[in-house]
From TrEMBL:
UniProt KW NAD keyword: yes
Organism from which the protein derives: Dechloromonas hankyongensis
SUPFAM superfamilies cross-referenced by the UniProt entry: Flavoproteins
Entry protein name: FMN dependent NADH:quinone oxidoreductase
Protein residues bound to FMN: S9, M95, Y96, N97, F98
Amino acid sequence: MKILQINASARSAGANSTRLADSITARLTAQNPAAVVDLRDLASDPHPVLDEPALGALFTPAEQRTPEQAARVALDDALIAQVQAADAIVLGVPMYNFGVPVQLKTWIDAIARAGVTFRYTANGPEGLLKGKKVYVALARGGLYRDTPADSQTPYLKNVLAFLGMTDVEFIFAEGLAMGAESADKAFAEAEARIDEIFA
Ligand SMILES: Cc1cc2nc3c(=O)[nH]c(=O)nc-3n(C[C@H](O)[C@H](O)[C@H](O)COP(=O)(O)O)c2cc1C
């Protein structure tokens, strides 16, 4: 079994989302002692943004790419290979300004590639990253779960499903900026949910 953990917080130490993601990965490895864990911390090891040179590289046929363009595409290829190889994916995701951190967006932009991780068919788009279990550990300062202000969860659900990943568990730690008591309760609830999932 291969586990891929992506830490999307902008901080590589002390991140609440990473704490929960670590907890989920620990449970997965406890259940599967032979599992191999691939960890990408996007704070200490960021992926480049999808900018004009990157788009130019992606849309240039492979045999015509400059060495710089080939190197840029290879960075995305490596992330695609990692996600293709994973049986379980653990995403640690803070809420930043109602959305996902730019660090996670760079990862999503890298792994969404037409003809490789999704394709268009006569019946519409088809995700090609099938058969994976995804855990999303969400850390938030406020309380947004199940409200129209939670634009983050529907976005993640949609984009993961678009790529074929439909088996997704969301684990919430909310109210982390609402005092120590609220933060303790949020972690206790998130850990209880993790216990439930792995019971
Ligand atoms: C730049 C920034 C933007 C934030 N925006 C939101 C927000 O829109 N909604 C919210 O509930 N919390 C927001 N927060 C609080 C974080 O979600 C919370 O501190 C969370 O623990 C951050 O995750 P991390 O500890 O994994 O980095 C924000 C925090 C930062 C630093």
